[in-house]
Structure formats: structure tokens, C-alpha cells
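Notes from the 1:1 (GR / supervisor)

We went over the backlog. Supervisor wanted to see one worked example end to end before approving the batch request, so GR pasted a single chain during the call. The sequence is below; no edits were made to it. Supervisor asked that the structure be written out right there so they could see what the output format looks like.
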Amino acid sequence: MKFTVQKEIFDIDLEDKKILLDPNSGRYIELNSTAAKIFEFVKNDEKTLEQITNFICENYDISSEEASKEIDSLLKKSPNIFSCS
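Structure output shown during the call:
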């Protein structure tokens, strides 16, 4: 399974956060710095959960099991931002 960012999403950086606009729902979404890094990593190219997990583990002091669980939760609870194929 590969994840990508929905093409309709607009994003802007604000300090260490990222603000997203979903024009389909009219909702603004605020991402913390870690979620913003994931968003940027996935934004221009499809990534697997394993690729995203490795990316986060390289940038943060976190186990791959914990990272995978948290990333999977973020991706699945944000279907209006991330899509999977």
C-alpha cells in the first residue's frame, strides 16, 4: 500500500507547523512539526508505510514499531489529506 497527498490540498508553512486547506470540505487542518515532515515527504511522490517509518526513524529517536503505529494512525485518520493505493 502506498500513500500520497490529495492533489486538492493547499499547504502553507507557519513557524514549525503546517496549515492545510481542504477545499472540498472547506476545513483547515493544522499539522505539528512531525506530521508536517511526513506531509512534505509524501507530498510529491507515493511512499509506503515502511518508507515513511524509516524516514521518521532517521530524523527522530523513536523505535520503528512505535513510529509505524503512530504514522499508520495519522495516515488512516486523515483520509481527506492522504490517500492510499
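Supervisor's comment: The helical segments are 33-43, 49-59, 64-76.
Batch request approved.
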